[in-house]
């Protein structure tokens, strides 16, 4: 059983809504790794918008660039100030 | 991580291609570059270092094996694409694979260099003993040392000793390998009859005989090989005629003469030819005897053996 499944088992979905439409790993304020990205909606050095299975994700910061993007996984580097969920 | 169907297909597609650690940087220009990136990634290409410089210009890197697909997509979607540089650990391999002719040429060159480095392509003579070049050349030919002989089959130190031993006129011999050339340095001997003063005006016969070899390096030969000479005859004179003008110069020449020496042996016994001949040869021990014959004559109760020795004498004057 994976860590996420363990958490899901521990807490029922009604108590804590766990959104599994994406997963993001944040490395300080230097990089963020996001899984299950459907496509890039917009890409600017200050703001990036991704489309997920459900909704989207916005990353704000400065000097942002895509370090690696393949098969639904994306790694964004730069000075990251905010990550927002878009519904 | 769970992949959706499209991602799985791309994953399998990527697995089939052998990925090299070689990447190419490209500059893409056009409108709606975000759509371009999505399209590239949907094709199963991993994009690296995507940097947007303006709304209409971005740079990205792709693996070397994906470059053709990227170009095809860019062409299909009417984007301008420009290759900037190659980088990565395997870039050298990639570059070499593009230059098969160059690699083959380098290999052929290396093989030819190694092969020909061991072959004698020319033999050069230097030093004051170069006047004896022909003698040394003949000796080397007899020994089997000539152009296209392998250096590895020669012991140069031994060759030096042998040349020195065979030529009395030389005091020093050095054989060196320089690239594919055999450099033989010869120094003339300063002692004995071959001492060269440098101001000899004529070559004069010192004994009676027949000229076997005459080699004139400076001066004019007055006689030729096979001519009979007597003591005091001028063989080579110190001049040359150039355009009807007589120019005086010092003589430098090599002469070998076959001289006949008569030796008489008297004995009371018969059949003493061999002893007589041996006796005669012992008397001329330091001479190079090339031929000999004995004639027996009986005078009263004694036997007279007349030995005729043909001796080869060599002279180098100059």
What percentage of the residues of chain A does DSSP assign to strands (E)? over 45%
What portion of residues of chain B belong to β-strands? 35-45%
Task: Work out the radius of gyration of chain B.
Answer: 43 Å
Structural class of chain A: mainly beta
Largest sheet of chain B, if any? 5 strands, antiparallel
Number of helices of chain B: 8
- Most extensive chain-chain interface: A-B, 19 and 22 residues
The beta-strand count of chain B equals 17
Shape of chain A: globular
Silhouette of chain B: rod-shaped
Number of helices, counting only DSSP H or I runs of 4 residues or more of chain A: 1
Class inferred from helices and paired strands of chain B: alpha+beta
Q: List the uncertain runs of chain B.
A: none
> What order do the strands of the largest sheet of chain B run in, or round the barrel if closed?
11-9-15-17-16
Elements of chain A, N to C (H/E)? HEEEEEE
Q: What's the rounded overall pLDDT mean of chain B? A: 83
Provide the gyration radius of chain A in Å: 14 Å
* First-to-last CA distance of chain B: 99 Å
What report would you give on this structure?
The complex is a heterodimer of chains A (about 90) and B (about 325). Chain A has about 90 residues and is mainly beta. A six-stranded antiparallel sheet of chain A has the order 1-2-6-5-4-3, with no helix packed on it. In chain A, β5 and β6 form a beta hairpin. With about 325 residues, chain B is α+β, with helices and mostly antiparallel strands. Helices cover about 30% and strands about 40% of the residues of chain B. Chain B has eight helices and 17 strands. In chain B, the strands form five sheets. Chain B has a five-stranded antiparallel sheet, with helices on one face. A four-stranded antiparallel sheet of chain B has the order 2-3-1-4, with helices on one face. The longest helix of chain B has 18 residues. The chains are: A mainly beta (about 90), B alpha+beta (about 325). The interface between A and B is medium-sized, with 19 and 22 residues. β5 of chain A pairs antiparallel with β2 of chain B, so a sheet runs across the interface.
């Amino acid at each position: 059983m994976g860590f996420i499944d363990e958490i899901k088992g521990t807490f029922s979905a009604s108590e804590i809504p766990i959104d599994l439409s994406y997963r993001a790993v944040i490395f300080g304020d230097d990089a963020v790794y996001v899984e299950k990205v459907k496509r890039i909606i917009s890409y600017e050095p200050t703001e990036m918008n991704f489309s997920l299975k459900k909704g989207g994700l916005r990353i704000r910061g400065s000097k942002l660039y895509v370090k690696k993007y393949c098969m639904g996984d994306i790694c964004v580097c730069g000075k990251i100030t905010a990550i927002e969920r878009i519904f | 991580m769970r992949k959706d169907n499209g991602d799985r297909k791309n994953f399998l597609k990527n697995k089939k291609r052998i990925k090299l650690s070689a990447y190419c940087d490209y500059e893409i220009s056009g409108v709606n570059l975000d759509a371009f990136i999505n399209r590239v990634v949907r094709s199963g290409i991993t994009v690296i270092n995507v940097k947007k410089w303006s709304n209409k210009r971005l740079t990205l890197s792709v693996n070397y094996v994906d470059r053709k697909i990227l170009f095809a997509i860019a062409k299909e979607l009417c984007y301008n694409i420009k290759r900037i540089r190659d980088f990565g650990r395997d870039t050298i391999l990639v570059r070499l694979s593009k230059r098969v002719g160059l690699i083959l040429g380098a290999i052929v060159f290396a093989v030819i260099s190694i092969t020909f480095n061991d072959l004698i392509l020319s033999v050069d003579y230097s030093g004051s003993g170069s006047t004896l070049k022909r003698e040394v050349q003949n000796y080397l030919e007899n020994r089997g040392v000539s152009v296209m002989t392998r250096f590895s089959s020669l012991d140069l130190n031994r060759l030096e000793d042998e040349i020195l031993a065979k030529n009395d006129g030389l005091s020093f011999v050095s054989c060196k390998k320089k690239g594919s050339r055999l450099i033989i340095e010869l120094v003339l001997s300063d002692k004995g009859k071959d001492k060269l003063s440098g101001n000899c005006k004529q070559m004069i016969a010192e004994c009676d005989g027949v000229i076997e070899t005459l080699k004139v390096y400076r001066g004019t030969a007055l006689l030729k090989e096979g001519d009979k000479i007597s003591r005091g005859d001028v063989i080579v004179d110190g001049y040359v005629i150039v355009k009807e003008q007589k120019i005086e110069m010092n003589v430098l020449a090599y002469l070998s003469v076959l001289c006949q020496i008569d030796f008489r042996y008297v004995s009371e016994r018969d059949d003493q030819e061999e002893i007589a001949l041996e006796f005669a040869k012992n008397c001329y021990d330091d001479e190079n005897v090339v031929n000999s014959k004995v004639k027996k004559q009986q005078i009263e109760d004694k036997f007279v053996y007349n030995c005729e020795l043909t001796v080869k004498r060599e002279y180098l004057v100059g």
